[in-house]
Amino acid sequence: MTKIFRIALAALLIGGAASAQTILTLGLFEPLNEHVERVLPQFYEMHPDVIVEIRTLGFGDHHDLLVTNLATGSGAADVVAVEIGYIARFVAEGGLRDLSEAPFEAGQYEDLFVDYAWAQGRTADGRQIAMPTDIAPGTVYYRRDHLEASGWTIEEVIESMDSFLEYGRVLQEMGVFLVADANSIAEGLIRSNIPEGDGIYFAADGTPLLNSERFLEAARIAQTVRNEGMDAQIGAWSNEWYEAFRQGTTAVEISGAWLGGHLQTWMAPETSGLWGASETPGSMLVSWGGSFYGIPTQTPAAKVDAAWDLVRFLTTNPEIQLEAFRSINAFPAMPVTYDDPMFSEELVFLAGQPARELWADIANQIPGVATFPGDMIAEEIFGSAMGEILNEGRDVQAALDEAQMLVTRRVRR
What we know:
By secondary structure, this protein is α+β, with helices and mostly antiparallel strands. It has helices spanning 9-14, 32-46, 59-72, 84-93, 115-120, 144-150, 154-157, 161-173, 183-190, 213-227, 239-247, 259-267, 304-315, 318-328, 355-365, 375-392, 396-410; strands spanning 2-4, 22-29, 50-57, 79-83, 131-143, 252-256, 275-278, 287-294, 331-332. The protein is built from 17 helices and nine strands.
């Protein structure tokens, strides 16, 4: 989909200055385009000599094409949106400019963002390859009806991982699954309690961590959930996943704050009032998504200044981030926005709970974790190991020892 915004173009033509205009292409995935289309007129007021051409694709198609464009060195938009799951790939394979260097000097904006969002766009060797725009503080969405029927309180449920599992056993007696997929618990645990300087999969010195105690514990807890029948064995983004939310066959989903918007608007709007949000079990602090903007190395030098102006407009302006929150439920990466009255609003879908205050508090506590070039490989190998552990009953230690060996072989330090 392509949409050219020509606000201010007429003025340029009338003034005979059309030759001075810069046409920027902006590559987005849905629904970021809805937000950007609303705020571009403000950008044009500040930069009347720039025209922005938006290229929008679905989430997967956008990133697949971007991977190809950056690998081949051609075809990418002048400014591109990137979801956190793809940042590691571009750290490893390159293709995005280092915004910490001149003429960008992005470091001057670091204090505007929550620590962990800034760190996610930064490599272990200090390159800032993308600027954060929205984040996804990890939270638990829970069904209030199942909680009430169980006789438990949410505080009791999330007190520890042990209490969380015990709640799952109570739910079993009620004919309800604790979670859709046991692997979601492992994913949350490996992303929390990370020592300062380490990444998710690698220590600060580049040593893989896949058979460290953090990974072993995460895998064992997930295996317990699977072996005891506490998960529905339903993968995310499947029709079965949506139906579980609608029918209430699962009681809890550990996810980013963004899930509530999806539940409300299209996944399960008929369940309004049945949901609540809380901290995660054992107070694990984890990020569960987020979006960034970067400038490809292939962007022509003549367009770089205008491209940086656009990136800064979309990422360092509190009002622009708040507009994204209003329009597409994109949680702001800038803590200064958390004082806005919108954050204390009672959310009807969550039975009147002012959950945004909770998410803002969580966002401010999540520690920063750098991105390592080998993250993409390690994530793939860990995923395969978890498949063997959960689906084939493989011994956790053996599976993760093998995963450690495979990552060590494939990633050069």
